[in-house]
Amino acid sequence: MNGYERRKQKKMEQIFSASIELFFKYGFQKVSVNEIAHKANVSPATIYNYFGTKEQLYTDSLTNWLDKQLAQYEDILNSGLSFLEITKKIMLLEAENLKILADEFPKFPSSDLRGLIQMMDGYSEQKVVPFFKKFVALGKQEGYIRKDQTEEIIMRYFTMFQNELVRNWEGSNQKWTTENMDQLMELFFYGVAGRAQLQE
């Protein structure tokens, strides 16, 4: 990467950081390109030169944010922790991130919401699903997930459990959820019968 490319990359990171902070705080409609440019220490012309439109800036900034969250999940998956600890950390982080997105979507113009949802669906198919397949493979390897369970069934089960965590997160029960995460993980993996009962 030459000097020009490094400077451009640095400016884009500044723009991504400023735009996602302002978009998440105030919503798409209430933030101007001029405000983003001021916070990012670049000119509005630079933003239009890189992204073309405010809508494209939003899409690219959100994709950049999602990539960074997914990188955190990858780091957790490759951390060497037990699969139970990996699952707990990923679920807590996912609950926090889904709460952010749930707060953000209502702020987006309804006329453009369909395109945003399509973008999120495409991102999930291209990047989230492959990650989840690695997650399931590790769980089967360590004996936490039955080898005869399909990825689709595990994903649906994970999503149902995750939705309840998000509901508690949205209800300002983050402290309770965090404090009781070990018990929730026991229920997630072993059900109400418990680990000892299943091993008898």
From TrEMBL:
Keywords: DNA-binding, Repressor. PANTHER family: ACREF/ENVCD OPERON REPRESSOR-RELATED, TRANSCRIPTIONAL REGULATOR, TETR FAMILY. Pfam families: TetR_N (PF00440). This is TetR/AcrR family transcriptional regulator. The keyword Ion transport does not apply. Residues 9-69 form the HTH tetR-type domain. Residues 32-51 bind DNA. One of its GO terms (molecular function) is DNA binding. InterPro entries: DNA-bd_HTH_TetR-type_CS, Homeodomain-like_sf, HTH-type_Tx_Regulator, HTH_TetR.
